[in-house]
Design brief:
By secondary structure, the chain is mostly helical. Helices cover about 80% and strands about 0% of the residues. It has 14 helices and no strands. Helix 3 runs parallel beside helix 6, helix 11 packs antiparallel against helix 12 and helix 12 packs antiparallel against helix 14. The longest helix is centred in the middle third of the chain and has 32 residues. It is globular, with a radius of gyration of 19 Å.
């Protein structure tokens, strides 16, 4: 394969953040919680494959859309100035084309499912495309991100049972609280740059109460998941998973309390284990 093509593929991979899989995992864990619960513990490998692939495609598309919207801002932020668009490694037309291709591939997968899931996928695409714009005016874009990142939850219930029960919306609410927690940790890294360029974030909105707010959101996440457990009559295995997640959140407090950027970013990355702990709890319930 010619070197130029290899270099262009690597640029596209960077634009889609395939070299940074944490975003895929933060979308995937809530979707897997929902698939387990919606299927009452039964594994439908067809659905798992569709949702896994769709998660990768839509997270990649979301990253491209985000970079298109933020192109003139990313060049002013230390952490993002080397991204492909502000670094002129890829044109905006190429980025638009890539986002369209990824979205069409994801929608093609969804079209193999029922009508309700297809309808929800259109809303999911809207949320993903409009999230970057909320950073211009909404003081809590992390909450919007939580809905966008968690929309695989109602879609999983729709695909499994052709309905979206109340428990699905409770799970989505838990994901919103969780997203505010982990993305505030992420935003704490960029707070100084965001203030300079006028971008909104929860880290700015919470101000000196940022650490307290993050921990409050973790608590609300766990409490909402306890409510889900009570609703569904979950066994102790589920609550052991929640206890594990709670301990991970406590560790994150130790990381972010000094507000050191490297430690805040480490806490953000550690949310993979938080999501995994809850998944293990759900799986443990259905295996017990």
């Amino acid at each position: 394969m010619p070197q130029k093509i290899i270099e262009k593929i690597n640029v596209y991979k960077s634009l889609m953040r395939l070299n940074k899989p944490i975003g895929i995992l933060l979308l995937l864990w809530p979707t897997l919680w929902a698939l387990l619960i919606a299927g009452n513990g039964k594994q439908d490998w067809h659905l798992i494959l569709i949702f896994f692939t769709g998660t990768v495609l839509m997270r990649s598309a979301g990253c491209v859309m985000n970079d298109i919207a933020d192109q003139r801002y990313d060049g002013l932020v230390e952490r993002t100035k080397s991204r492909p668009l502000p670094n002129n490694e890829v044109s905006k037309k190429e980025a638009y084309a890539l986002a369209v291709v990824l979205s069409v591939l994801a929608f093609t997968l969804v079209c193999t499912l029922n009508l309700l899931t297809i309808k929800l996928s259109v809303l999911a695409l809207f949320l993903s495309a409009t999230y970057p714009l909320t950073k211009r005016f909404f003081p809590m874009p992390q909450a919007y991100l939580g809905v966008a990142f968690g929309f695989g939850i109602p879609m999983a219930f729709a695909a499994t049972n052709n309905e979206v029960p109340m428990v699905a919306w409770l799970l989505l609410l838990a994901n919103v609280f969780w997203a505010i927690a982990y993305d505030t940790e992420y935003a704490m890294v960029d707070r100084e740059d965001d203030l300079k360029i006028g971008v909104k974030s929860s880290a700015i909105t919470f101000g000196r109460f940022d650490v307290m707010a993050v921990m409050a959101c973790y608590i609300l996440t766990i409490l909402t998941l306890v409510a889900v457990g009570q609703w569904l009559g979950m066994t102790k295995s589920y609550y052991i998973g929640l206890a594990m997640a709670s301990m991970i959140a406590c560790y994150h407090y130790l990381l972010i309390k000094t507000r050191k950027k490297s430690r805040c970013f480490k806490a953000f990355l550690g949310n993979n284990w938080f999501g995994l702990a809850i998944f293990i709890g759900c799986l443990g319930h259905y295996l017990s």
